[in-house]
Amino acid sequence: MKKYFALLILALILTAGVRAQAYVTKNGYIRFYSEAPMEKIEGINRQVNVAMLPATGDFVFKVLMKSFNFEKALMQEHFNENYVESDKYPEATFLGKITNIKAINFAKDGSYPAMVEGKLTIHGVTQVVKQNGTITINKDIVSAKAKFTLLLADYKISVPSTVVNNISKSLEITVDAAMEKLNK
Predict the structure, then answer these.
(1) pTM of the prediction?
(2) 175: nearest Cα among 114, 90, 105, 99
(3) Which of 20, 43, 133, 169 is 20 to 30 Å from 147 at the Cα level?
(4) Residue range(s) defining the domain that contains residue 127
(5) Total structural domains in the chain?
């Protein structure tokens, strides 16, 4: 995974030019939450690889599906084996751009609205997504945050009929990544 992430960052920098500054983290945070009448389901992953190029707005993240942690071990097992099929589809990725990158002043501390557009791949299915979020600049740390909803059906994640009332058809996704300059 480290090699893949390093190659991804290298590709981003080369496409933007050798002098491009990148912000990265290997400790991004993704939480998904669903609530149905019978049960709430929450998965948290604190091992999300994220990279961003302020010069171009290029933004990428990669997450190993097996790195999500659950309150109950059985939920984690079902998530990996029955729903996202982690052995077959081991990762989720997002490749996109912050479309209003010029409205974000990376030289000035503050919080800026961000519009992100790109391709999100989960469970082997790629969908074009557009989301609003926030970029916060605090000294040399750039934090990207967003909260949005995904439909399981959009990513061909099926719910067995025996538990269809226990699992919501949508997930609330929270993303939070505090990134540092790649080469300070």
Answers:
(1) 0.86
(2) 114
(3) 20
(4) 2-181
(5) 1
Q: How many CB atoms lie within 10 A of CB 66?
A: 16
Helix ranges (H only) for the chain are 2-16, 73-78
User: What 3-state class would DSSP assign to 52?
Assistant: strand
CATH of the domain at 49: 2.40.128.110
What the block records as the tokens of 56 is 């171009």
**Among candidates 149, 9, 126, 123, which has minimal Cα distance to 65?**
123
Q: Which amino acid is at 67?
A: S
In contact, 145 and 114? CB cutoff 8 Å: no
- Please report the beta strands in 11-89, taking only residues with DSSP state E, as ranges in sequence order: 23-35, 40-52, 58-64, 69-70
Phi, psi (rounded to 5 degrees) for 133 = -155, -165
Annotate 6-30 with b (16+ C-beta within 10 A) or e (fewer).
eebbeebbeebeeebebbbbbebbb
pLDDT in tens, 58-85: 999 999 999 999 999 988 998 899 889 9
